[in-house]
């Protein structure tokens, strides 16, 4: 019996959450058998499912489970048509998601964006701009900057005007720790890091550039380029293939990661990881698809489970160091795509190789590829 045991809290949430989590767990089970580790997975309600079952979006028992787990595999939460009278601080997006981010100090958000050549049709860019396929990782700082800096107020001035203030604050240690996450990721990829800032206008940008340049000295195999955020927004559309790892502060990362996500064609293909502080060999992580609950397609076997399955692969890699198993899942997804399997969101009727499949068949196929 293996002594590699990991405790996972699986929180499916609302909408398509339960369907896609089911497929991710199926694929995880296949890696467990093959690579000889054990996953102790416990499912618990969150979001509207939490409100229905225990009266709040993040039930106490769910939080307790998360605290005693090594990582969280999360679906998504929120149903726009449910009770509009519920106060916004009790709504799932805030009461569950933001609360978990805060509870576990999740400061690093990793969003890989990959467009395989077989899915070129799903990308809004012309084929010549896609080169041999787009493959980048956006690393976003998640707990600092303008979204959290103080003062953060709206006040009425003496002249009767209303004034809103948000404050951008970063300290050296905050920049350094996210930069290290990005450099380590670059070492495992194509060893190129583009650090985004606005050093020509913002004090924060000057500090950001300075700290990233100093951290770079510890990662001599990684080449570093500094790019202003406005240019980066443009370069993502003009030549996305120039990027490997893109490092951003919180607000720039929020915007650029969504812009980069659009290049992959479907939210159904995009996983994400949010990492907390590493303790010994363990990094607590929160793994979820980039998209939401997709109420328009929920319960119809239409959702693409790949984003959730790739999120599970990121969990194996970043929290458990089970890189071979994570590679096997990435390859399994590649093989399902290469075989022509497509959920509705990535289906192209003009592609003679493509066959439209449902959520379950996509999960079965990836799980089978992992097992062989
Ligand atoms: P959404 O991401 O749920 O859906 C946007 C579009 O993308 C829809 O057409 C949907 O069908 C499609 N889509 C998303 N994931 C897909 C998948 N796996 N396969 C195929 N198609 C997919 O965004 P929305 O409609 O703006 O939001 C719906 C709800 O989800 C809202 O309540 C929102 O607050 C919530 N939400 C939650 C999270 C989260 O839990 N992290 C993130 C975003 C949105």
In short:
By secondary structure, the protein is of the alpha/beta class. The chain contains twelve helices and 14 strands.
Describe this entry's structure for a reader:
By secondary structure, the protein is of the alpha/beta class. It folds into two domains: 1-114 and 267-372, Isopropylmalate Dehydrogenase (3-Layer(aba) Sandwich); 124-263, Isopropylmalate Dehydrogenase (3-Layer(aba) Sandwich). It is built from twelve helices and 14 strands. The protein has helices at residues 17-35, 48-54, 60-67, 92-103, 127-130, 172-188, 203-216, 229-238, 250-263, 306-318, 323-338, 359-371, and strands spanning 5-13, 38-43, 71-76, 108-115, 134-141, 153-156, 162-165, 192-197, 223-228, 245-248, 271-279, 282-289, 341-342, 355-356. Strands 2-1-3-12-11-4-5-10-8-9 form a ten-stranded mixed sheet, sandwiched between helices. It has a two-stranded antiparallel ribbon with strand order 6-7. Helix 1 (17-35) packs across helix 10 (306-318) and helix 11 packs across helix 12 (359-371). The radius of gyration is 21 Å and the shape is globular. The site of nicotinamide-adenine-dinucleotide has 23 residues, from helix 4.
| Name given to the CATH homologous superfamily of the largest domain | Isopropylmalate Dehydrogenase
Overall tally of domains: 2
Major β-sheet annotation: 10 strands, mixed
- Poorly predicted runs are none
CATH-defined topology of the largest domain: Isopropylmalate Dehydrogenase
Largest sheet, spatial ordering of strands: 2-1-3-12-11-4-5-10-8-9
Which overall shape is indicated by the principal axes computed on the Cα atoms?
globular
Count of beta strands: 14
Rg, alpha carbons: 21 Å
Question: What is the share of helical residues?
Answer: 25-40%
């Amino acid at each position: 019996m293996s002594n590699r045991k990991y405790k996972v809290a699986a929180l499916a949430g609302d909408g398509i959450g339960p369907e896609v989590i089911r497929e991710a767990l199926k694929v995880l089970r296949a890696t467990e058998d093959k690579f000889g580790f054990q996953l102790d997975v416990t499912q618990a309600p969150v979001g509207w499912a939490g409100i229905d079952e225990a009266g709040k979006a993040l039930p106490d028992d769910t939080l307790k489970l998360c605290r005693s787990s090594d990582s969280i595999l999360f679906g998504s939460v929120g149903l726009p048509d449910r009770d509009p009278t519920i106060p916004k601080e009790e709504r799932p997006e805030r009461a569950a998601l933001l609360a978990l981010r805060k509870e576990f100090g999740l400061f690093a958000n990793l969003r890989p964006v990959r467009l395989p050549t077989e899915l070129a049709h799903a990308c809004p860019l012309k084929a010549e701009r896609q080169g041999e396929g787009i493959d980048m990782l956006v690393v976003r700082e998640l707990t600092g900057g303008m979204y959290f800096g103080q003062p953060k107020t709206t006040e009425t001035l003496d002249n009767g005007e209303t004034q809103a203030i948000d404050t951008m604050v970063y300290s050296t240690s905050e920049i350094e720790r996210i930069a290290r996450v990005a450099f380590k990721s670059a070492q495992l990829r194509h060893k190129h890091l583009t650090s985004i800032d606005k050093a020509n206008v913002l004090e924060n940008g000057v500090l950001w550039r300075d700290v990233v340049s100093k951290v770079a000295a510890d990662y001599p195999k990684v080449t570093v380029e500094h790019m202003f955020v406005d240019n980066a927004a443009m370069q993502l559309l003009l030549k996305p293939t120039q990027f490997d790892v893109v490092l951003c502060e919180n607000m720039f990362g929020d915007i650029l990661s969504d812009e980069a996500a659009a290049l992959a064609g479907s939210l159904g293909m995009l996983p994400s990881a949010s990492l907390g502080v590493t303790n010994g060999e363990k990094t607590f992580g929160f793994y979820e698809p980039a998209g939401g609950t997709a109420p328009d397609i929920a319960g119809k076997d239409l959702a693409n489970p790949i984003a959730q399955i790739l999120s599970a692969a990121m969990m194996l890699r970043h929290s458990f160091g089970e890189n071979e198993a994570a590679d096997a899942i990435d390859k399994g997804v590649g093989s399902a795509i290469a075989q022509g399997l497509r959920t509705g969101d990535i289906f192209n009727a003009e592609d003679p190789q493509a066959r439209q499949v449902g959520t379950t068949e996509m999960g079965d196929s990836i799980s089978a590829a992992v097992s062989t």
